[in-house]
Amino acid sequence: MKPLLWLVEDEPSIADTLIYTLESEGFQVRWFERGEPALQALQQGLPALVILDVGLPDINGFELCRRLLAQAADLPILFLTARSGELDRLIGLEIGADDYVAKPFSPREVSARVRTILRRLHKQQRLQQPTLYHFGAFTLDEEGATICYHQQPLPLTRYEFLLLKTLLQAPGRVFSRQQLMDIVWAQAEESLDRTVDTHIKTLRAKLRAMDAAEPPIHTHRGLGYSVSRQP
Fold first, then answer.
1. How far is the CA of 123 from the CAs of 27, 78, 117, 137, 186, in angstroms?
2. Quick one: residue 219, left, alpha or beta (phi over 0 = left, psi -120 to 50 = alpha)?
3. How many other C-beta atoms can be found within 10 angstroms of the C-beta atom of residue 17?
4. How far apart are CA 52 and CA 21, in angstroms?
5. How far apart are CA 177 and CA 180, in angstroms?
6. Which residues does UniProt assign to DNA binding (predicted)?
7. pTM
8. How is the chain split among helix, strand and coil, in percent rounded to 5?
9. How would you label 69-91 residue by residue, b for 16+ Cβ within 10 Å and e otherwise?
10. Where are the alpha helices (DSSP H) in 8-131?
11. Distance between CA atoms of residues 37 and 225, nearest Å
12. Residues 163-219 pLDDT 10s
């Protein structure tokens, strides 16, 4: 699906040229000759990016930028302006714009700037997305320190989370109490082997509260504990 851009520009000749170039390079473009209609259109959905002229007849472009970002804080904005002074560029960037192009400009330069902004944002979004690991009915979000069971988050304490994570990351492997103590309670002072048994018991209780089936945490008498290979 083609990325949707909004162009807020009151000069038809500039708008026509930009629309032609942007659409020929794979974008959809919605054109606004005034700022207020663009604000109202936010209620219908967000574009991928806004190209915004500073010198609009109904509202100052900087003020429009502030009001757009007040409603959609992550909305990417590229300023167009006839004013090339450093102060104006700084104002635009400081109030939240992503880039700034001074007139006269090449439409292809504007298109290239748009692609650069969208590519950078895409990379940032990918980095911010949590890495999830799936183990049968379990989903582990290691960065968020959460584990879901049958798509429901488990209310785990710190050590319950670390204990279950350790078992899940090696399904079928039997961990002795001492191995679990060394991995999970490595930084704790004066912890006892029975601590593992207590936490296994509370984990099983929390799993049963979400699913009546027998929890897939297994006791191996004299050896330790494991989780099923396909829990």
1. 19, 18, 10, 30, 36
2. beta
3. 14
4. 16
5. 5
6. 130-229
7. 0.57
8. 45, 20, 35
9. beeeeebbbbbbbeeeeeebbeb
10. 12-24, 35-41, 61-71, 86-94, 107-128
11. 63
12. 999 999 999 899 998 899 888 887 555 556 678 888 999 999 999 998 878 889 999
Angle of helix 86-94 versus helix 61-71 axis, rounded to 10:
10
Which residues are paired to 224 by β-bridges? 220
Question: Could you tell me which residues come within 8 angstroms of residue 17 by beta carbon, excluding any fewer than 6 positions away?
Answer: 107
**Length reported for the chain:** 231
DSSP conformation class of 54: S
Rg from Cα positions in the chain = 28
3-state class (DSSP) for residue 139: strand
How many whole angstroms separate alpha carbon 133 and alpha carbon 169? 9
29 Cβ contact partners less than 8 Å away, ≥ 6 residues apart: 4, 5, 6, 7, 18, 19, 22, 23
- In the block, tokens 């050896």 appear at 223
For 145-174, write each residue's pLDDT tens digit: 899 999 899 998 888 999 999 999 999 899
Q: What is the dihedral sign for C-alpha 37, 43, 45, 51?
A: positive
Owner of token pair 């109904």 = 58
8 Å CB contact between 24 and 16: no
Cα–Cα distance measured from residue 118 to residue 152, given in angstroms and rounded to the nearest whole number = 33
**Is there a contact between 35 and 56 (Cβ–Cβ < 8 Å)?**
yes
Amino acid at 26: G
